[in-house]
Write a structure and sequence with these properties.
The chain is of the alpha/beta class. The chain has one domain: Rossmann fold, CATH 3.40.50. The protein is built from 7 helices and 7 strands, in the order H-H-E-H-E-H-E-E-H-E-H-H-E-E.
């Protein structure tokens, strides 16, 4: 029987392979449906010229364009994604928009972010947090807390779990259990996960995609918040 760590590692490998194959078709399949929520999240994050911003799970790079335009020539955008295929599509999009010089992309695991402590003013995730195994979500959010500056802010756009799911929620849960590789997002209690690692929630917008609940949450790193260890 596989250990929890082995199961998480195997799931990550499957996710990477799936999104590598899906990368060139992702915008056609899900892009338009998700765009409204992503734009709302970007508006809530309100990135300013000169800021340094990180996007985790940048996918095909749609939001990277908006972030690079917001930070301007004096700012910098970084991105990290598990999928090499997504990285290639995103890089092509940035080159075509002549914004590649403002953005630095990396392929890697966000649970161990390859950045120093306290380097980002803002952090953005859309339809990414719920892709992680439940065991990994707190670890990822602790990393987010670590790389943000004091008073830094994070916006998370994620499929949310409700106490009383509607018909689409029930149908989605059934499909997720039956085809977990293809219906891979697992709705989460977004507020609870973020508050577990001592972010301070500033505001929340509730919306939906295909009748499925989505929460858009803006959270702040408290002034003077120490970087938390995994043994906290």
């Amino acid at each position: 029987m596989k250990s929890p760590l082995e199961q998480v590692t195997k799931k990550r490998e499957i996710t990477k392979t799936y999104y590598d194959h899906l990368s060139r078709w992702y915008d056609l399949l899900a892009g338009k449906a998700e765009n409204k929520c992503k734009e709302m999240g970007l508006k809530l994050l309100n990135v300013q010229p000169g800021e340094t911003v990180l996007e985790i799970g940048f996918g095909t790079g749609q939001c990277l364009l908006a972030l690079a335009q917001s930070t301007g020539d004096t700012g910098k955008v970084y991105g990290i994604d598990l999928s090499e295929g997504m990285l290639q599509v995103a890089q092509s999009r940035l080159r075509n928009a002549r914004l590649a010089e403002r953005v630095e992309l990396r392929q890697g695991d966000a649970v161990q972010l390859p950045f120093e402590d306290g380097v980002f003013d803002a952090l953005y995730m859309s339809f990414t947090l719920e892709l992680f195994d439940p065991l990994e979500i707190p670890l990822l959010l602790i990393e987010c807390l670590r790389v943000l500056r004091s008073n830094g802010r994070m916006c998370v756009v994620a499929m949310s779990r409700r106490d009383k799911p509607g018909f689409m929620g029930i149908l989605y849960d059934w499909a997720h259990r039956k085809w977990p590789i293809y219906i891979d997002c697992s709705p989460i209690l977004v507020h609870c996960e973020i508050e577990k690692v001592d972010f301070e929630i500033e505001s929340t917008v509730e919306t939906s995609v295909f009748g499925l609940p989505v929460d858009i949450v803006l959270a702040m790193k408290r002034p003077g918040e120490n970087n938390r260890s995994l043994n906290h």
